[in-house]
From TrEMBL:
GO molecular-function term, one example from the UniProt record: DNA-binding transcription factor activity
Any matching Pfam family: GntR
Name by which UniProt lists this protein: GntR family transcriptional regulator
SUPFAM superfamilies: Periplasmic binding protein-like I, Winged helix' DNA-binding domain
Keyword field: DNA-binding, Transcription, Transcription regulation
Domain called HTH gntR-type: residue spans: 4-72
Top-rank taxon: Bacteria
Length: 337
């Protein structure tokens, strides 16, 4: 059975979550109707996607109990000599919805084409070494630099959205913070904002985006409201004003504020104030509020991270490097102007 194109996003979503351990062997996946709603599919299209995954050996259909993950979902993985470890989050992709499964699906697709095995690693970071012991390269899909001072493995590494390269051991693939900041400056200028406040979480990769934007914004003659490093739902730290602009260094951060605003005040934060996010997560997660964002191409990030890992696997002496990719400003209609 050929891969049904209309169900491609659903297939990637399920495949990535099986690989990362969200859906464990024998566990039930969401119902067909739930998948229909999430991915805006017809019943037939969703069923075709599930049938494709069953044919690949990833899922199993049961007449009375629905569809479950097969007892050995990795059986069809290549048995080639090369092996790349992939560190997802602590056993779940739900801490980073949308972004990771798009990138991971591209990594899986390229690995299958090149006959390279993948090993999923997650959990407490000081337990990763035994899991990754036989890997020739490692792709890191979590903010490892915020959780440990040194890498818990010796293989060459490629990190997605990291700040620290661990002394030259890790190549880094990230949205370009400089061109992203320039797009953000232009966005707020077009919206005729004189003052912009940046809201960020504590991670260094996000603080770095904040600092670059604030510098370029001041250079352009704008007034800065400062950089606020605050809890997701602490609205008291930011008394939003309609005449000002607000840059969030990740869509996830903006979404948490939007949820807190909706619970406290009702209505849409993005419809009321001039906001901009970074990374494009709100375009990929149906539950997210719609707001302007500088979006990364997450399939491309996954492909480039895999190619860099393969290059360093083949040549362990290849130096680590930073690969910055341009984002694209996406503005939904009917937003606050």
């Amino acid at each position: 059975m050929n891969r049904p194109p209309v169900a491609s996003e659903m297939i990637d979503y399920i495949s990535a979550r099986v690989f990362a351990g969200n859906y464990r062997p024998g566990s039930r996946i969401p119902s067909v109707r739930a998948l229909m709603r999430r991915f805006n599919l017809s019943y037939g299209s969703a069923l075709n996607g599930i049938s494709y995954l069953c044919e690949r050996g990833l899922l199993e259909k049961h007449p009375k109990s629905g569809v479950t993950v097969s007892s050995d979902p990795h059986a069809q993985q290549p048995a080639g000599g090369c092996c790349i470890g992939v560190i997802t989050s602590n056993g779940t992709l739900d801490n980073n919805p949308g972004l990771v499964y798009h990138a991971l699906s591209e990594i899986q697709r390229n690995a299958l084409e090149q006959d390279i095995s993948l090993i999923a690693a997650s959990g407490v970071f000081d337990t990763l070494s035994p899991v990754l012991e036989h890997c020739q390269a490692v792709i890191v899909m979590v903010e490892l630099d915020a959780r440990c001072e040194r890498l818990p493995f010796s293989a060459p590494a490629v990190g997605i959205f990291q700040a620290d390269d661990f002394g030259g051991q890790m190549s880094i693939v990230d949205i370009d913070p400089y061109t992203t900041a320039k797009q953000a400056v232009d966005f707020f200028r077009r919206r005729r904002r004189k003052r912009v406040t940046v809201l960020t979480d504590p991670g260094e990769v996000y603080r770095h985006r904040a600092r670059i934007f604030e510098y370029l914004w001041r250079e352009s003659g704008g007034e800065s409201g400062g950089i606020l490093v605050s809890p997701f739902d602490d609205l008291a730290d930011c008394a939003f004003r309609r005449e000002e602009g607000y840059l969030f260094t990740s869509d996830h951060h903006l979404q948490h504020y939007a949820e807190a605003w909706r619970d406290a005040c009702g209505g849409s934060l993005a419809q009321r104030f001039c906001l901009l996010g970074i990374d494009g997560k709100n375009l990929m997660v149906p539950e997210f509020e719609h707001f302007p964002t500088v979006a990364a191409d997450w399939h491309n990030i996954g492909r480039i991270a895999f190619e860099e890992a393969v290059a360093r696997l083949k040549n362990p002496l290849r130096p680590a490097r930073r690969i910055h990719l341009a984002g694209k400003l996406i503005e939904p209609e009917n937003q606050e102007d």
